[in-house]
């Protein structure tokens, strides 16, 4: 009888024989490899989820200093009580979280108690993170330990007014303002009502995204005045480091009442829609965080935000008035601020105040223009701004600041013209408000002598 080798050579070409032998030899290895990878597959998925959570929670914004190592801390957080440098959350054993167990990390994140029992100041939004699930906390811990490079970096001590620097006072503060972690028995911590999408949006807004930390006003003890939709103060707008964090409720003029759900999601993804363009701190949030959210999570956030009723009595939608545009087009610049608007603003925003869709924002009916607090607009005209750097746009756009060229009264006149034109009915801006922000920002008027 011919040998097996001879039979195979007779009936199979050499190339096919080699391929057949390779497949036969590889089959057991592939099976063994699949079995070995089954266990770490869950760990890989957990780290990936933690990476996503760290991004949409925008952890880097507070824990990565400009030019510094990722998550090594050192960002100076300015509060009404003083300054607090952010902590190092890299897995360095001495100065970061390298020595933290998962339980210790969970306690710090959701209860504001660091390893060793040190109380954290609520500039770290642990009252919001208290609503995160234990599974998401574990995923975040896994990511920080697995993929973040350890950096040895100690932070300077906080500088707070007496007696607010006494960490022991936070025991009492937490009794009043901190909810139990979401996986423990606490009726306040549970998100009730709504469908699955609404509940997901509520979780993202209230917990992971901690939107209330900026957009909810704070009381005398610097706690947010509301933590969910049951409070009329929740997301009703607040002042943060000299900026007005806008009203995210359903008010028709200064809130999101005039935006569709799709437009809310578009703004969070791109920093632009037909109503507004991001600027100031929000551009950073969009660039680093919300643009990276999944379409499903963006839609869930938008659905939840659109469910919040207005609180400012703005039930009638914005109604455009063409009188301002007609006056400008006819060369009538007699109104205070009109001439300066024509010189500095009209080339981009137009005589009609409608801008250029998704590039130069409209001024007519823009919630930021209609905000009762004009501080963000004052900052914008003094120092300029940049739109969010997002993957969906070819470039980010810079608006120049005019604090160097226009004095306080001139800037106030321009803002008054904008806030009162095209059907806008916002209050004018005082020159003293401009002067206060100029001093805070350190912007000097350089062009007075040359005009």
Automatic annotation (TrEMBL):
The keyword Iron applies. Its main location: membrane. Keywords: Cell membrane, Heme, Iron, Membrane, Metal-binding, Repeat, Signal. Residues 1-32 form the signal peptide. The keyword Heme applies. InterPro entries: Cyt_c-like_dom, Cyt_c-like_dom_sf, Cytochrome_c-type_DH, Membr-bd_ADH_cyt_c. Residues 45-309, 332-422 form the Cytochrome c domain. It is found in: Cell membrane. This is Alcohol dehydrogenase. It comes from Cupriavidus malaysiensis.
